[in-house]
Specification:
single chain; 504 residues; alpha/beta; 7-stranded mixed β-sheet; 3-stranded antiparallel β-sheet; 45% helix
Length: 504
């Protein structure tokens, strides 16, 4: 006789007659969002077969529909999507199943304690960006930013944001800020820079000593301080012992983290930088959303922060579209021949048209989705985008910038993605090293926190809400690529494969 299957714990996909089927949940959530702007599209999403194959095209249609038909409430689609997510998912503890909202007030099984650790480093007085073995600052940094703009690697507004921070070095003194960092050990997160610039951070990550050794190393090198969640108190100077007792699991310990974070007297920023593989990415992203939403409700002057993946569908500004179309026109016979030989599948133009909003704004649809990342990845990333839009509409300041394609461990562990990234430069896409991406994106976070004209502030007037993500996008060149990224991804992988074999 075999033991019964353990009941799944923490944040969980809804159970159906066929089990916890993530594709069915994703279709239902995206259909709910689409129903706010296009009922026909909602029906096609709901009835879509082979969701893994069709989701990318349908999410592109959803972005188009949001631009063309926002309705009375420009945030109707994000609100409907978030409502569907929160109504569908549940929180499990033992044999008890609760709503996500109820998880916040469930009795904590463990009372997390707080240990404060202070940095020993020297304060940073100037913005520095590591790049290609150099540390860029001053004129060197400005020259590189302009070179990226010329190459189409980042939008001009991204360069302007970083230059603004470089020109205001006093902005880098973050000693007045207290920042919650969910997913503190994330390879793309800003933890090290926040500490280097003197912030007080409240880091949250899994209770794994290896992760906390990395977090504590960043604390030691910085000038700020960290207030750690620990399972029981140990000597704060014994970092090896601290790494063993620190941390909490976002997906399964929502009540414990909610109780612990409720003790924070004030918060200036709540940043979400979590990541996991497959369906767990949705679970942990939703747990972070539950906690971040509760924290911004309690602290309405708090800024909600995070990063946006370049591999999604965005409303690209007209200059980016025009640059891509210009490169397509000058591409010559080779790309046109490849398109014909591949029967239209390869070297497809990225922009077929411009999408006009009811207010007369125009955007192109920059579709950087990578099918190998899958629909669960798409759901987790749209969840974050929806939350940023709804939070801003409800009066919460946000910092939500598109990060460049980056050679993180999660990317390079996927052989096909690693090969495609290695060959991306053949098509004008630059894949950044993690240390460069994190420094750039941390600088943009500082811009969003210090600049009163930052578009994430609710008092700053925007056109269509999706224009928020068009500002300061450091997409690595994807938006100005003349061809649809998915149509050249296989060739990029072929060209990059030898390089990955050499370094593998």
């Amino acid at each position: 006789m075999t033991d019964a299957t353990p009941t799944p714990q923490g944040v969980q996909f809804p159970a159906t007659s066929g089990g916890r089927r993530t594709s069915e949940t994703g279709r239902r959530v995206f259909a709910a969002a689409a129903s706010a702007v296009d009922r026909d599209l909602a029906g096609r999403i709901r009835d879509a077969d082979a969701w893994h194959e069709r989701y990318a095209d349908l999410l592109c249609e959803l972005t188009r529909a949001e631009l063309q038909r926002p309705g009375d409430d420009p945030e109707a689609a994000p609100r409907a999507g978030l409502d569907a997510v929160h109504a569908s998912f549940t929180f499990h503890r033992g044999d008890t199943e609760r709503s996500l909202a109820d998880a916040l007030t469930m009795p904590a099984e463990l009372e997390l304690q707080t240990t404060t650790v202070r940095g020993r480093g020297q304060p940073a007085r100037e913005l520095e960006i590591p790049y290609a073995g150099r540390l860029l600052r001053g004129d060197d940094l400005r020259h590189q930013l302009r070179a990226w703009v010329t190459a189409g690697t980042i939008e001009p507004s991204a360069a302007a944001s970083v230059e603004l921070v470089a020109a205001n070095p006093d902005w880098l003194d973050l000693s007045d800020l207290r920042v919650v960092v969910l997913g503190a050990a994330s390879e793309m997160g800003p933890l090290g820079h926040l500490l280097r610039w003197g912030a007080t951070v409240v880091p949250v990550d899994l209770p794994r000593p290896r992760l906390w050794e990395r977090i504590l190393g960043a604390v030691r090198e910085g000038t700020g301080e960290a207030q750690l969640p620990v399972r029981h108190r140990v000597d704060p100077d014994d970092h090896a012992a601290l790494a063993v007792v620190a941390g909490a699991d976002l997906a399964t310990e929502v009540p414990e983290l909610a109780a612990w974070l409720s003790g924070q007297e004030h918060l200036d920023v709540v940043g979400t930088y979590v990541y996991a593989d497959g369906a767990d990415n949705v679970r942990v992203s939703l747990a972070a959303d539950v906690l971040a939403t509760e924290l911004t409700r309690r602290h309405p002057d708090t800024t909600l922060a995070g990063l946006l993946t370049p591999t999604d569908v965005y409303a690209a500004p007209v200059p980016a579209v025009e640059a891509a179309v210009g490169r397509l026109t000058s591409g010559g016979l080779a790309s046109r021949t490849a398109n014909r030989v591949s029967r239209g599948r390869g070297f497809r133009p990225q922009y077929e048209d411009l999408v006009r909003t009811p207010d007369g704004e125009e955007f192109g649809l920059a579709d950087g989705q990578v099918p190998q990342q899958g629909p669960n990845y798409a759901l987790a990333k749209r969840l974050a985008r929806w939350r940023f839009r709804v939070a801003r509409a409800d009066g919460i300041a946000v910092s939500a910038n598109v990060a460049p394609a980056t050679s993180t461990r999660s990317v390079t562990s996927n052989r096909l993605l690693a090969a495609a990234y290695a060959g991306a430069h053949h098509f004008g896409v630059e894949v950044f090293a993690p240390e460069t991406s994190t420094a750039l994106m941390a600088a943009m976070l500082v811009r969003d926190l210090r600049d009163p004209l930052a578009p994430g502030r609710p008092e700053v007037t925007l056109g269509h809400p999706l224009g928020l993500f068009a500002d300061a996008a450091a997409h690595g060149g994807l938006w100005r690529l003349p061809w649809a990224p998915r149509s050249v991804l296989p060739l990029a992988a072929v060209l990059g494969l030898p390089r990955t074999l050499r370094t593998g």
